[in-house]
Every structure is written in structure tokens, then in C-alpha cells.
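May I ask for an example protein's residues together with how it folds?

___
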Amino acid sequence: MTMVLYIAVMAGVTYLIRMIPLTFFRRKIKSRFLQSCLYYIPYAVLSAMTFPAVFYSTDSPVTAAVGTAVAVLLAYFRLPLIVVALAACAAALATGFII
């Protein structure tokens, strides 16, 4: 019974999060500043949720830092996501073997 209650509460919260902006912002947003802020919110939230977890993904923060540095460097050069992910994993693994 408690699981059903949890699911119902989360469904309500999810619905409210999606419904409230549609209720308050009925007209098109004309402010360029507000539009630019709203444009970057999904990227900022995803980064804030993902980036700290990267440093706890391995036993050593050094291996996580090396993997992150490799990923950032390869992403800077606009390599495909699969290449970036595999190279970051390989760099973290190799660093783990060295340490």
C-alpha cells in the first residue's frame, strides 16, 4: 500500500512541475534575458546532477579526475559521444592499473 502512495505522490509532483509553468506563462516570453536563462536551465541541472557523481564513480578520485579530463578534452574536439565515453573509461581504467 505504501508503494502505491509513493507512486501517487510522485505522479502528483511530476504533474505539478509540468503544469505550473504552463499555467503562469500563457503568453510568449518576450524578454531575451529570460529566454536565454530558460534555454540553459536543462543543461545546468543535468550538469549539477551528473558532475559530482563522476568523482564518486571509482574508488579513487584520481582515476575519476583523469577520466573526466580525457572526456572533457575529447568533447572539446567534438568527437562522437561513444568515443568520448569509451576513451574516458579506458583512461580511468588505465590510471587505476598504474596507481
Q: What stands out?
A: The helical segments are 2-24, 32-54, 61-76, 81-98. Residues 2-24 form the longest helix (23 residues). The chain has four helices and no strands.
